Sequence to fold (236 residues):
Amino acid sequence: MGCQLTLSGKLTVGGPGCGCGPGGASPTKTVALSGACFETYAAIAGTDCPVLVQTVGIPGATWQDVPALNGLKNLRLLYVAAKAPMLLRVGATVATLLGSGGTFPVTLAGGEVFAFTADGVAVSTTFTSGTKTAAAIVTAINQAAVGAGLAFFPASVDSGGQVRISGSKTGKDGTVVVTTALAAIGFAAVASAVGGGAELAAYGTQLLQFAADGAPSRVQVSGHGWIEVLAGGDPV
Fold:
């Protein structure tokens, strides 16, 4: 039989409390896990008092990470108290494409072109001749990205030594599309990727519990108003 989740008792986070936000607040949340079995968490984190969220535009137009949860991953429990209608994006991920088959250092004749779009912004890199490490390829791509108007570096070297191209927006707003492939650096064909995340309405108090398999590590919020959060998971 699976665990039963019951809203009862108290779950307390250490701290002196605070007097900020509308009417002040306490770090004590009126929720607890009880039932046939119990969950323990390697780490917990949350806001000591309500935090004001003010994203640009209507809810869903722009997003920010949920306050105070950057030190957690693999969330198993998420408590949210929103004092105005907001949206949550649970399991938020950016669009990303990982090269494969690139052997570095690679020797280029010069004039080779690699082009892609990241979150809708077109980037084109024309490489000079010479032997290039993966890091040098990434530097050239990022220089072209800055020139194209991106406010972030889309290229990086993956832990396996391959070139990775990523966007910065999460969910359906985030896209990466290779428009001109270059097999020598690990992108042999055009390809595309979209960001991820499940969007949920948040207003009032919500308690979400996640299975260990596929537990989210990033949660974002969009809207205007005060929010309190508390989460249990693993430390980053």
